[in-house]
């Protein structure tokens, strides 16, 4: 008996220490967790950098609309042995004859018409930037969903840990009561042993739940991109949005679901690619101009030096007349790519609406189950209180008390799990609708 009292005192002491340290821990809300993840998440940073690349690429210059200006320098020197026989029969020979030429200046080359390919390319660069924005939104949605799912899983486990701790306290009280009754001869040794076995069983369940709780905390810290050993607490309730409406979700999904938007943008990119391919049927017209200075010196010949400077200008035009029917093939391929893009959009829309319908049915069922399990928990708690009062005065057997105790803990666990499942359904629906907010 002394050992039992010392053991209980130690457990209470440890419980107070843990409770005190828990009060000192940071209370992390779902909003704060999402904010930390959005700031630290590596995938979001990578996709954001890729979007910055796409934004930088949107320029008339990269599309080919602007002229290209080059500074040019050409310097040639030679030293040769030369023998010349002129038309009048005169022969001239010179060893180590030097020839030097130097030209330098600025040249401009500007494609002024290419079948409107440059304009299609510029619009395509804009669409690629829009594609990057949609991909960033998708990365953010996935991260927020992952954070919220893990966060509320932790809330559920914290609730279950509290419930198991409560039932463990009840089991310890039962052991003390059975021990006292045994010592005064009002209970058998079997009743005491059964109480101790049940206490150990509850202790095992508590330790397993505590292990799962700590591992989930580590997982959440990993998602948040911070020290995995960071200590914190989460809120103790799960609030579920019970006002989601399927037609409104379907409307939002078709307007802003990132995966669907990606396919719509890909179709526009395919259409612009077709315009660029078709532009090859038209001539390419370019204008050239420049200002060149040129000096040359020759040791032998009619002209020993020559100096030139001034503008030059002109234009060029090329038109593909025959290329082995490749133009027709390229246009046919581009048209098929557009057709495939349309089919992918239809497929994605159908899949999205199917996922929404299924998820909404699960959501509706989970709301009903959450309400049912909350009521069941209240009933189980009332039943346990009555049973415990009767057990203390010895009017009911041990097995009936244990049944009421197990009924209560199971009701608490089911209620906690039902709330978590309802929250998961809410998160899934909002993610599919592209409208995942806290």
From TrEMBL:
**What Pfam families has UniProt attached to this entry?**
OEP
Q: Which Gene3D superfamilies match?
A: Outer membrane efflux proteins (OEP)
Keyword Ribosomal protein on this protein? no
Where found? Cell outer membrane
Signal peptide range in chain numbering: 1-24
InterPro entries under this entry?
OMP_efflux, TolC-like
| Keywords, alphabetical | Cell outer membrane, Membrane, Signal, Transmembrane, Transmembrane beta strand, Transport
Concerning its family, UniProt says: Belongs to the outer membrane factor (OMF) (TC 1.B.17) family.
Q: Which PANTHER family match?
A: OUTER MEMBRANE PROTEIN TOLC (PTHR30026:SF20)
Q: What is this protein called?
A: TolC family protein
Organism name: Aequorivita echinoideorum
């Amino acid at each position: 008996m002394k050992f039992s009292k010392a053991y209980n005192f130690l457990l209470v002491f440890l419980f107070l220490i843990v409770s005190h340290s828990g009060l000192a821990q940071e209370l992390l809300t779902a909003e704060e967790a999402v904010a930390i993840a959005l700031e630290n998440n590596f995938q979001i940073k990578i996709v954001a950098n890729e979007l910055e690349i796409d934004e930088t690429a949107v320029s008339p210059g990269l599309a080919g609309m602007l002229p290209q200006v080059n500074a040019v320098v050409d310097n040639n020197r030679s030293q040769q042995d030369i023998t010349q026989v002129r038309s009048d029969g005169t022969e001239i020979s010179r060893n180590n004859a030097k020839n030097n030429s130097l030209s330098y200046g600025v040249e401009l080359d500007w494609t002024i018409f290419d079948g409107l390919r440059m304009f299609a390319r510029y619009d395509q660069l804009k669409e690629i930037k829009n594609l990057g924005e949609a991909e960033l939104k998708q990365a953010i949605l996935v991260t927020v969903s992952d954070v919220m799912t893990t966060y509320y899983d932790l809330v559920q486990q914290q609730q279950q840990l509290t419930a198991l701790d409560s039932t463990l306290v009840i089991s310890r009280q039962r052991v003390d009561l059975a021990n006292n009754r045994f010592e005064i001869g009002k209970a058998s040794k079997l009743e005491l042993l059964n109480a101790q076995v049940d206490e150990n069983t509850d202790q095992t369940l508590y330790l397993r739940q505590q292990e799962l709780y700590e591992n989930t905390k580590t997982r959440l810290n990993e998602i948040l991109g911070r020290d995995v050993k960071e200590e914190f607490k989460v809120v103790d309730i799960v609030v579920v949005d019970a006002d989601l409406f399927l037609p409104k979700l379907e409307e939002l999904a078709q307007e802003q679901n990132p995966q669907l938007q990606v396919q719509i943008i890909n179709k526009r990119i395919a259409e612009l690619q077709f315009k660029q391919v078709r532009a090859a049927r038209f001539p390419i017209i370019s204008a050239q101009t420049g200002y060149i200075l040129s000096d040359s010196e020759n040791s032998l010949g009619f002209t020993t030096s020559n100096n030139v400077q001034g503008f030059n200008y002109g234009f060029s035009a090329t038109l593909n007349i025959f290329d082995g029917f490749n133009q027709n093939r390229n246009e046919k391929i581009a048209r098929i790519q557009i057709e495939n893009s349309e089919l992918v959009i239809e497929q994605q829309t159908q899949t999205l609406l199917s996922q929404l319908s299924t998820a909404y049915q699960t959501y509706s069922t989970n709301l009903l189950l959450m309400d049912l399990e909350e009521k069941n928990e209240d009933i189980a708690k009332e039943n346990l209180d009555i049973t415990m009062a009767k057990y203390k005065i010895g009017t009911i057997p041990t097995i009936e008390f244990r049944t009421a105790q197990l009924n209560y803990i199971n009701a608490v666990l089911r209620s906690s799990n039902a709330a978590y499942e309802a929250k998961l359904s809410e998160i899934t629906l909002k993610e599919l609708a592209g409208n995942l907010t806290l």
